Amino acid sequence: MGLLDILQEAIGGDTAAHVDQVAQHASPDAIGAGLAAAMRSDQTPPFGDTVGRLFGQSSPMQQAGVLNQILATLGPAAASMLAGGVLGRMLQPGQTQLTPEQASQLSPAQVTEIAAHAEEQHAGVIDEVSRFYAQHSGLVKTLGGAVLAIALAKMKENATRG
Q: φ and ψ at 81, to 5 degrees?
């Protein structure tokens, strides 16, 4: 069974059950593009809400990974100003990345706010965060049916074009 067959089957049924299959057959770039389309869709929760939800389901290492992706996209100076400066207060002078211990001190609500502000500053942060989560299919499954359906449909659309 090829990727298009898997995507077609997933779109028509239990999307979460097919995420692992899709992850085995699709490139991280394809998965990331599908996730980014879903995160931009007006049929899914706002980007910040989605990132906050994923953050709450993540391990401390994954939490640090996504926050460091936001820091890398915006730059530490800009990112440290987000959400009332919570990231700036956590970073030591000269530090450009959060440790898993530091990241785990943040709440999903704080990360929702950080992600929402990051999107306002740099719309490309959605693509970068989506590429990060594309490497974590276990987390992607927690997104829920609507987000997964849109992501998989976009992947199918992109695959049939290419």
A: -85, -15
Whether residue 38 has pLDDT greater than 80: yes
**CB-based contacts of 13, cutoff 8 Å, min separation 6:** none
As a whole-number percent, the residues of the chain with pLDDT over 70 amount to 84
Q: Of 15-19, 25-29, 116-120, where does the model show the most confidence? A: 116-120
Q: How many other CB atoms are there within 10 angstroms of residue 92's CB atom?
A: 8
In the chain, the largest separation of any two C-alpha atoms, in whole Å, equals 52
How many residues are present in the chain? Answer: 162
What tokens appear for 30 in the block? 């394809």
Nearest partner of 79 among 57, 61, 97, judged by Cα: 97
Give the DSSP H or E segment for 5: helix 3-11
State pLDDT tens for residues 73-112.
888 777 777 767 888 788 888 788 899 999 999 999 999 9
Is-contact 35 130, C-beta < 8 A? Answer: yes
Angle at the Cα of 49 from the Cα atoms of 139 and 81, rounded to 5 degrees:
110
Q: Cβ contacts of residue 53 below 8 Å, gap of 6+?
A: 45, 108, 112, 142, 143
